[in-house]
Design brief:
118 residues, mainly beta, seven-stranded mixed beta sheet, four-stranded antiparallel beta sheet
């Protein structure tokens, strides 16, 4: 079993910054993929950013140049640094990991609310 604990969400003004963290724990042999997704009210969940074990990253066009994803393999933790936040970034942000336990499975965090006020 794998547990994900997210933190770092909150209320911030337009142009502000937040840093999200997601720590994975449990019976983890290896983590291949770590990512952040978000879901705004009335909308589908969408990919924000991902990072694989080799460090290759991928971003949604809407956050490129403003958000940075990183990971600490020793701590099984993924981060999302969010700068120049906009009202349209308001959503619940979810961490997702692809973990070998020893079987490959996706796990989701509980979600953390990010609200950007104008």
């Amino acid at each position: 079993q794998v547990q994900l604990v997210e933190s770092g969400g909150g209320l911030v003004q337009v142009g502000g910054s937040l840093r999200l963290s997601c720590a994975a724990s449990g019976s983890i042999f290896s983590i291949k993929h770590m990512g952040w997704y978000r879901q705004a009210p009335g909308k589908q969940r969408e990919l924000v950013a991902t990072i694989i074990s080799g460090g290759l990253t991928n971003y949604a066009d809407s956050v490129k140049g403003r958000f940075t994803i990183s990971r600490d393999n020793a701590k099984n933790t993924v981060y999302l640094q969010m700068n120049s936040l906009k009202p349209e970034d308001t959503a619940v942000y979810y961490c997702n990991v692809l973990v070998y336990t020893p079987a490959w499975s996706h796990y989701w965090g509980q979600g953390t609310q990010v609200t950007v006020s104008s």
